[in-house]
């Protein structure tokens, strides 16, 4: 067996309904199934979702406050009032400010822009910024991506004689600010049909209300901000992003073209993934580390050279950001290990805090720690202006971090956020109490299973379904992102026909999957290289991944990008290639990839040769003696031996019946069976000639007495006789059985005048002679034959029991 890394959530599917929808909409049945499980259950919904023009768009005047905003802005334009666009320092806020800049230029406005500094000013409207606006002669402030919580600041602006138009998309508080206009689709009683616009999406709606049809650059900016702010790519967001990505293929924005160039995306088809992982982080780096104005100036310039220089500056800032994140993450990990010693000792909720960490990266570090440990994580640094601890939180499915913080509100100076992420400030001396209370809440709300990450599977399919046609139809569901994730397919019980590591350091895994009809599919798992030792040849694996087209030398064929993998049956690992020498045992088995703590070593006789080797490396408690009736007896005295899930069959069983009895008795309980059979070659060669027995006997007679546990003695005789160490050990066991030597305490002694006996009187001797055909058979079997033989033996026992 091989456990999956995550918990798989596999939806139930109404197959007949999916077939009906596929026929009505002219789409692949698997695509219909996927859309059905995602809630698109009518032909109208499916057709709207798949529209090439992006689908849903809504009247901007359905937004409560839009008419008042348009009237206020038009009046300010007519009266040539000084307008200030007030934004935020993240990618959503920066693209919102850039979009409004282009809008103001279009309208011929007298205006400027202002984005507060993340460290020195913090988020949102504040009095000092309003005082500066008054000094600068500003008459009207239009906020973008901020302002919905600025109740007192709005009052202060009014007292200064500054008009406010607030546009925002964050959760509104109970008490809304008083302003000339407040636009937010989440406002109570707002009739706008889609509530999940980004801040830049709200700014786009304001632009549409003011000028009607907007230029392509507006849509491009809205698409970038929507993706970067992790908004769900459904409904109008889907329309914005689809249209924006299409426009980006020949972007009208000098700034975006320059970003594509420095990010290595020039000439490529831009996807939502490129924006989320390459463009968004570079825009964000500006506000995280220095001033957001660098990114803003890039997005509003028309000068190609200036754009390229600014893009290079952002690229360098992003590299700095990555370095700072890596350094901070390393410090945080070391801090946690110093405090808790081991990952197993980590509390339900992790808190890491330092006075010198950069506030612009603590959210990223919290997300990285969550990825590493999969538990709610808070990372804090000190705010130099207030002396308070400023934190960023990321949480897991099942633990609403915003609600948890709300229950600890008495400890916090400020907090905000949602189920999965939050920000907060508090006095440093309250951090320990905050962690205690959050841990108490987590213990109440979370089970052990909740600490295993989730993988949401969309479809079950076979290898025959994995075609270029299906991939092309699945691509119609793009753009993929939050709310419209890339489809994950489950291919059950695929045979692992071939397997190898790839990558410079072998860190990745490539599989060739096959089914009963002989169809095959390439599958690649990035970061899965270590699993090669945990997947046996001929294993049947359940594989979850994303289908993609692999193009090579003009050939196009389907390929699966692996997300997770599991094997739900006993796996048989063929270790017969290991040499049976003591040295090979130490160098080979001890470092054998895939050897687990749950592994026990099965020996077939109590020769000190094998016991000493295994005990020295792994301890006596992991040695089991196979008896003739197929039972496994622990050599240690623990009356309740550990239930081992892995068995390593070190020696050849004495007979095929013993072999069958063991497999039938324990096979259904095991996860792994490693077939080493270290002495099989010796058994296959038959018993040593009688002359060799005489040679060994002569050496024992000369030695007279020796330590029973001293395996070096075997080696000395081996060197003198030309026998293998294991053969020497076996011959001495035969002599002991015939009472030519005796065990007395911890020593073996030669018997001077033993009773004459024939070798054939030894049970060990006769068993080895009888076992020769079994040894030959097992050595000659291919891995597939060996595996099938073992499965047949186990299955026959299951069938008999049934």
UniProtKB/TrEMBL annotation:
Family in the record: Belongs to the RecJ family.
Gene: recJ
Species lineage: Bacteria, Bacillati, Bacillota, Bacilli, Bacillales
Domain RecJ OB: 457-564
Residue stretches making up the DHHA1 domain: 348-443
Keyword Transferase: no
Domain of life: Bacteria
SUPFAM superfamilies given in the database record: DHH phosphoesterases
Coiled coil: 300-327, 424-451
Swiss-Prot/TrEMBL GO biological process terms: DNA recombination; DNA repair
Organism in which the protein naturally occurs: Insulibacter thermoxylanivorax
Gene Ontology MF: a single term: nucleic acid binding
Domain spans labelled DDH: 83-226
Domain Single-stranded-DNA-specific exonuclease RecJ C-terminal span(s) in chain numbering: 571-788
Name of the featured protein: Single-stranded-DNA-specific exonuclease RecJ
Keywords on record: Coiled coil, Exonuclease, Hydrolase, Nuclease
